[in-house]
Design the sequence.
């Protein structure tokens, strides 16, 4: 990288982030690009009426915390609010605004409230222990779970138990996923063996289907951008010029993938903390599904942080090799491809 670029250059492979359960819980808020998300700022695609329907359903769900109105005088009994669903589940494709609506609901809800990905909640339970996690979340008005994924039976049963206990105490639940709740785990583990747990989870949500085109790709065609050395220098220079200084990470793609295997995915948010741009050299296809899934989790956090990626080698949207794109994790990989293309369009 040209020495004339005024950057702090770091390597992600040199970072070994630590994060306690309490620290994980403290950052359970929407990603920063959704700091101002509201129902009014959601823009439904007029070609897909389900987006307008979903907006109104979630907006209505947000009124479930409103106090019941009094009538009939001072000594009259307070009317109970209409009984509504314990939770709401936004099911749809990539880039149709599910996370925006979930964040808007979180902003509208009273506290205490939490917003995190499925993997963040499971990591907190793992770090703190089940009883301590239940104690932490008990009393929350809303638990918002983005990217609800059940990739192994242990997580299925643990999350079912956690959400059951929390909803029984009065906590309302909201989740997004690209898989309907009665199909969670399908194609990834023996879902039939855990049908009772999955059905119990499904029964706690009203499912809202959202159709539409991926907004990240409406104006983007082709692949993730690939740069040579000069292109990387120019791109980083453009980032740096937007501020007095910048912190840029630069890593060999293979080395980063190996390093991700030493870190729990819940700590990826700390791994990229303070980074303004990411450079990846010599990108090549991934042949291990374990490595590919870790990379998906990493890109989720990079995308949430809105960090641009400058890469050389193979296009990043082509890293999921072999039959990955047709297997049980296909939807995860498709979502990641969408985010990889968006993250390189700077």
Sequence:
């Amino acid at each position: 990288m040209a020495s004339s670029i005024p950057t702090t250059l770091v390597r992600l492979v040199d970072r070994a982030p630590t994060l306690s359960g309490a620290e994980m819980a403290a950052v359970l808020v929407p990603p920063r690009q959704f700091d101002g998300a509201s129902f009014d700022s959601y823009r439904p695609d007029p070609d897909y009426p389900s987006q307008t329907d979903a907006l109104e359903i979630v907006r209505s769900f947000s009124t479930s915390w409103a106090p019941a109105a009094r009538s009939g005088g001072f000594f009259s009994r307070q009317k109970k609010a209409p009984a509504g669903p314990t939770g709401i589940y936004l099911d749809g494709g990539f880039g149709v605004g599910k996370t925006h609506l979930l964040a808007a609901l979180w902003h509208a809800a009273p506290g205490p409230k939490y917003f995190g990905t499925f993997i963040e909640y499971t990591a907190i339970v793992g770090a703190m222990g089940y009883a301590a996690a239940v104690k932490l979340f008990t009393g929350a008005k809303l638990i918002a779970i983005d990217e609800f994924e059940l990739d192994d039976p242990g997580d299925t049963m643990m999350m079912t138990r956690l959400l059951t206990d929390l909803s029984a105490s009065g906590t309302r639940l909201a989740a997004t996923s690209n898989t309907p709740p009665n199909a969670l785990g399908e194609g990834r583990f023996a879902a039939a063996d855990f049908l009772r747990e999955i059905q119990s989870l499904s029964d706690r949500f009203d499912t809202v289907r959202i159709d539409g085109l991926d907004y990240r790709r409406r104006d983007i065609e082709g692949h993730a951008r690939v740069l040579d050395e000069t292109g990387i220098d120019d791109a980083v220079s453009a980032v740096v010029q937007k501020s007095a200084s910048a912190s840029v990470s630069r890593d060999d793609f293979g080395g980063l993938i190996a390093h991700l295997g030493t870190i729990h995915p819940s700590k990826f948010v700390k791994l990229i903390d303070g980074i303004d741009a990411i450079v990846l050299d010599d990108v090549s296809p991934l042949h291990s599904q374990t490595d590919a899934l870790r990379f998906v989790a990493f890109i989720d956090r990079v995308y949430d942080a809105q960090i641009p990626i400058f890469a050389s080698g193979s296009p990043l949207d082509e890293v999921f090799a072999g039959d990955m794109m047709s297997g049980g994790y296909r939807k995860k990989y498709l979502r990641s491809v969408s985010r990889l293309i968006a993250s390189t369009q700077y």
Summary: The chain is about 35% helix and 15% strand. The first strand starts at residue 7 and ends at 10. The chain has a mean pLDDT of 81. Strands lie at 7-10, 87-92, 113-117, 142-146, 172-177, 205-210, 246-252, 277-283, 309-313.
